[in-house]
Amino acid sequence: MKKNIFNLNKSLLVALVLIAASCQKLEESPDGISTPSNFYRTVLQCEAAYAGSMNALWTTWSGYQNQIGLPDGQYEGASLDLGVGSFNELWTWHYKAISNVNAVLKAVKDGSLAGNSAETIAAVVAQGRFLRAFNYFTLVRLYGKIPYITEDTPDPISTPLTPDSRLEVAAIYDLIQADLEYAKDNLPDFDGSVPGKPNKWIAKGYLAKVYLTRATAPLNQAEYYAKARDMADDVILNSPYTLLPDFRDVFKTSNNRNMEVMFAFNRTNDAPYMPGNVWAPSEMDGWSSGAVKILWATTIYPEQPRKHSYLLLDFPSDIYDPSAPIINWTESVDGVPYIGKYNMPNLTYEQQVGGGDAGIEMKLLRFADILLIYAEAANMAGTGPTQLAVDRLNLIIDRANEGTGTEARASIGMSQAEFDKKVIDERSFELCFENDRYFDVLRKRLLQEVNLPDNADGYDENDYLLPIPALDAGSIGQNTGYE
User: Fold this and answer.
1) Does residue 337 sit in helix, strand or coil?
2) Is residue 147 part of a domain?
3) What's 163's DSSP letter?
4) Which of 53, 126, 298, 345 could bond 186 through an S-S bridge, CB–CB 3.0 to 4.6 Å?
């Protein structure tokens, strides 16, 4: 289907030009003006800029705190009828974050932290390189060949980006891995007093995820399955993170920063989250922003206690009336289920209806994901599932079933293909609405399948990459299918 050009967004190139222009040296250097060359002179200043890079992805009423309705087969109303303006904001957010990180890395490379120990400087650089890898890992999966801008990239004013600036996908992954390798070797161990700050185990977790992605589409470099298996195994055996006994405890706002959560958007009090009723149905005074695809919720997701926690299927008919009966989503005004992870009982009543900060911690990497990475990689690295892969997958299934659920356990008798499908299905159930499923859909080439029967209009193979914003595409080229 021909995809039309519309809705031009902010441009990477324009953003880079503005950043570069703001950093040009003046004829005079007035005292008190902060620039990259004179600001990043303490560790705290560098880390403040890193926090700012995460804030580029997390701003009130925008960013990842507002669910990105990518067509992963779980969001009600998502569509494959994509145009050149579809999801342009993802490109803008991540390149803005990268610009913030690169400014710090450039200053540190130029000696801004001179006087600190080599270990301290390496740890600051490791934080930046981890965050840069985190952003590029998202971008390469969504857009394929992209510019890989570092602290050493020439000034975009004097050296504009061109189509040749877009690196091959494998080369981008090599650079992501190099950043993560440096991060795992130079970041400190887990420290519970600094939540949100990357540590070596988080870097290893993302390395395992990068390896697994390389082993699947579009690169299909099968030798990376073993690397993913071994890196995930290291995290499972040696990190302080763990699978909580009760899935109900993972998403409670009263239990934020628990030991199943490895990496998340850890906000401060001056960067509040949106009100809880944003994700709720009309009966809960909601804004109907968290609707779940009916077919997936009713037919695909197995019946088990976890389903009734992660999805909102039954809820009060009037949130303000304590005596109001509980109704099923089929009886509701909106006529759809909702995301349970971001509603009561994970929120308090006041967070749900108070109109203020709901306190929701948006997860980016969980220990459950590492178990699933291990299971998938161990199976595919050999000729079928190992007993350890089966056992680790069943840890998640058993927790979800609680002895009463109907989901079948994995078994050593499964074929390699059967076990692989079992893992991917389990990833969709356990990690739903955590900005993960869409990437599984891309790397396992499930895009059309998960959007059938009602959301696949306009599908073609080009949909496996999102469009580059038109203003940038004019300089660096556009992904096929969006011309």
Assistant:
1) coil
2) yes
3) G
4) 126
pLDDT tops 90 at residue 455: no
**Strand (E) or helix (H) holding 261:** strand 261-265
Neighbours of 288 (CB within 10 A): 16
CB-CB contact of 377 with 219 (8 Å): no
What is the distance between the alpha carbons of residues 57 and 263, in angstroms, rounded to a whole number? Answer: 14
Q: What is the pLDDT of residues 412-447, one digit of tens each?
A: 999 999 999 999 999 999 999 999 999 999 999 999
Look up residue 354 and give its two tokens: 């108070």
| 3-state SS assignment for residue 19 | helix
Residues 464 and 345 in one domain: no
**pLDDT tens digit sequence for 208-255:** 999 999 999 999 999 999 999 999 999 999 999 999 999 999 999 999
| Distance, CA of 54 to CA of 220 (rounded, Å) | 30
Q: Is 57 helix (H, G, I), strand (E, B) or coil?
A: coil
Residue 157 phi, psi dihedral angles, 5° rounding: -75, -50
- Whether 28 contacts 71, CB under 8 Å: no
Contact 53, 131 (CB under 8 A): yes
Q: Is 68 helix (H, G, I), strand (E, B) or coil?
A: coil
The reply to whether 244 and 320 lie within a common domain is: no
Cα distances (Å, whole numbers) of residue 235 to 138, 231, 373, 395, 440? 22, 7, 11, 16, 21
Closest CA to 321 of 367, 353, 292, 351: 353
HEC-encoded secondary structure of 265-307 = ECCCCCCCCCCHHHHCCHHHCCCCCCEECHHHHHHHCCCCCCH
Model confidence pLDDT, tens digit, residues 332-363: 999 999 999 999 999 999 999 988 888 889 99
- Alpha-carbon distance 81 to 3, whole Å? 8
Tell me the C-alpha distance between 309 and 202, whole Å: 26
- Of the residues 319, 341, 360, the one at which a domain ends: 360
Per-residue tokens: 101: 């990180």
Question: Could you tell me the residue range of the domain that residue 222 belongs to?
Answer: 12-23+34-265+431-476
CB atoms under 10 Å from CB of 358, counted, come to: 24
